[in-house]
Design brief:
2 domains; 181 residues; mainly alpha; globular
């Protein structure tokens, strides 16, 4: 029969999905602030600043409600190298706290990836991280038709990339917004 789980997988994945949306929306600011953090207090300050920039009323995840209670786990996670510039890794690691360790939470979440595209705010970083050549090509084109042709060159089942392929005009608009083009 075994012992009772501290946190059911379904609940963990639900928390991760909701937390992912907030992390992704705050990602342009949060990713930079977390990279610059020198200690757990700086990392905590980055999370608090992100909460003020992108407030969410109904987020039940403990990491969002009371990040100070998880600041040491956050700092350990950031120092582990497992963030890899991916907002979903941060959400996955923090979603299971305090019932699970960040490592166990992240492992379960990575075995069960999100099936929805990233929030628009994280698209540019996603393309830079996963498809840098395609991003460079997209920044050089001017029309949605050209963007569609560029995006068609990569074969992937990633939900974010598939969304960009379906909506090349939106992809072009969002990706060029902060490029200086």
């Amino acid at each position: 029969m075994g012992r009772k789980r501290k946190l059911e997988q379904e609940e963990l994945l639900k928390r991760r999905d909701v937390l992912s949306r907030w992390v992704e929306e705050a990602w342009p600011f949060l990713s930079v602030a977390l990279r610059k953090a020198k200690n757990s207090d700086h990392a905590l300050a980055a999370v608090h600043a992100a909460k003020h920039r992108v407030p969410v009323v109904m987020l039940a995840a403990s990491f969002y409600r009371a990040p100070e209670e998880q600041k040491e786990q956050l700092w350990e996670f950031l120092g582990s190298g497992r963030l890899s510039g991916n907002p979903r890794n941060l959400a996955g690691a923090m979603a299971g706290l305090p019932e699970l360790s960040w490592k166990r939470s992240l492992d379960i979440c990575q075995q069960n990836p999100c099936q929805f595209p990233l929030a628009r705010q994280a698209w540019r970083d996603f393309m830079h991280r996963k498809f840098p050549v395609r991003l460079r090509e997209l920044l050089e084109v001017a029309t949605p038709e050209d963007a569609k042709a560029v995006l068609a060159r990569s074969k992937t089942t990633d939900p974010t990339y598939l969304h960009l392929k379906k909506h090349p005009e939106e992809a072009l608009l969002v990706l060029k917004a902060n490029s200086g083009c």
